[in-house]
Design goal:
By secondary structure, the chain is an alpha/beta fold. The chain has helices spanning 8-14, 20-30, 47-52, 64-75, 79-83, 117-130, 146-149, 217-226; strands at 36-39, 57-61, 85-89, 101-106, 131-142, 155-161, 168-179, 184-194, 206-213, 230-235, 252-258. The radius of gyration is 20 Å and the shape is globular. It binds S-adenosylmethionine (SAM). S-adenosylmethionine binds next to loops.
C-alpha cells in the first residue's frame, strides 16, 4: 500500500488549514538565535514560513515527493529566502549533521515514524548531535483518545474534489492498533474513492497507509535523557494548555527538549589565586 508521502500535492491540500502548530513553532524559532533544522520537513509546510521569517533553515526528509514539492516552493521565494534554505534527503534515524543548529523541530507527529525505542533513541541522539549547547528540540505526537482507538470500520467520510485529478472523491479513514516491539502502533488506512456525477463510486479507489507509534510522555522523557537531552517543557496542544497524560482531553502532546548549555570551566581567576 502506498504512503501519504508519495503525493505532496494531496498532502498540502489536506493540511492547508492546519496552522496552529506552524504558528507555535515559528514563535519558538524566533526565541533562538541561529539556524533551524526542520526534521521530516515534508513539503515545507513549516519550513517556508520559517524562511519567510528570516531564519536560515535546513530541511531534511526521506520522501522524494515531499522534498520535490518543498524544493518547488523554495524556488518561488526571492533570492534572499532561497539563499537561506537547504534541503537534504536523510533518514531521521541517522541524521548526519554537526552541531550548528540553535533550534531543531520535528513537526506533525514525525517522531512517531520511529516504531521502536532503538529508532527513537537514534533520532534523539542525531538531533542532540546537531544542536549547539543550549539548543532546543521541539516536536509533537498524536495521542488519540480511547474513544478514537476503539472505533471500528470507516469514519470521517468527507467528499472533496481531488486537487490532482479534479474528480469528486470520497475520503474515509479506518485504523487498528497493533502490538509493536516496544508499544502499540496505530496502523491507519486512508481510503480515496472517486465518484461519478451522481456521487456513486466510480472506478478503483486507492488506499494510503500510515503507521504511528503511540508513545507515552514517560517513554519520551526517559529516551531523551538517554540521548543527553533534558525535557524542559510539555504542552497538551498548540494553544499552550498543560499536558495531563491520560486526561482524555488532549490529542496533541508537544515537547521541548534542550541540549544542556556548555558548562563554564571552573577555572579560578587570577584574583582568587
Ligand atoms: C506528517 S509528515 C510532517 C511533515 C512536515 N513536518 C509538516 O509538518 O507538514 C511526516 C514527514 O516525516 C517524513 N519521514 C517519515 N519517516 C522518516 C524517516 N525515517 N526519515 C526522514 N523523514 C521521514 C515523511 O516523509 C513526512 O514528510
Amino acid at each position: 500500500m502506498r504512503s501519504p508521502f508519495d503525493d505532496g500535492e494531496l498532502y498540502d491540500w489536506e493540511y492547508r488549514r492546519r496552522r496552529a502548530d506552524v504558528q507555535f513553532y515559528r514563535t519558538l524559532a524566533d526565541e533562538r538565535d541561529g539556524p533551524v533544522l526542520d526534521i521530516g520537513c515534508g513539503t515545507g509546510r513549516l519550513m517556508l514560513p520559517l524562511l519567510r521569517d528570516g531564519h536560515v533553515v535546513v530541511g531534511a526528509d526521506r520522501a522524494p515527493a515531499m522534498l520535490d514539492r518543498a524544493a518547488a516552493r523554495v524556488r518561488r521565494l526571492g533570492i534572499a529566502g532561497r539563499r537561506r534554505a537547504l534541503l537534504m534527503r536523510a533518514d531521521l534515524r541517522a541524521l548526519p549533521l554537526a552541531p550548528r543548529f540553535a533550534f531543531a523541530v520535528a513537526a506533525f507527529h514525525t517522531v512517531q515514524h520511529c516504531e521502536t525505542d532503538a529508532d527513537l533513541l537514534r533520532f534523539f541522539r542525531g538531533a542532540e548531535a546537531a544542536l549547539v549547547p543550549g539548543g532546543w528540540l521541539a516536536f509533537d505526537t498524536f495521542a488519540p483518545e480511547k474513544r478514537f482507538l476503539d472505533r471500528r470500520g470507516r469514519s470521517g467520510q468527507t467528499r472533496f474534489r481531488d486537487p490532482r485529478t479534479g474528480r469528486p472523491t470520497m475520503y474515509s479513514e479506518s485504523h487498528r492498533v497493533e502490538t509493536g516491539p516496544d508499544g502499540p502502533i496505530l496502523a491507519m488506512t486512508f481510503h480515496y474513492q472517486p465518484l461519478d456525477t451522481r456521487d456513486r463510486p466510480q472506478g478503483r479507489g486507492r488506499n494510503l497507509s500510515l503507521r504511528h507509534r503511540l508513545v507515552q510522555p514517560a517513554e519520551i522523557q526517559s529516551l531523551l535523557v538517554r540521548a543527553g537531552l533534558a525535557l524542559v517543557a510539555t504542552w497538551g496542544g498548540f494553544d499552550g494548555r498543560p499536558l495531563v497524560p491520560g486526561d482524555g482531553q488532549t490529542e496533541q502532546h508537544v515537547y521541548l527538549a534542550q541540549r544542556p548549555p556548555a558548562q563554564r570551566p571552573d577555572v579560578p581567576s587570577p584574583q582568587r589565586l
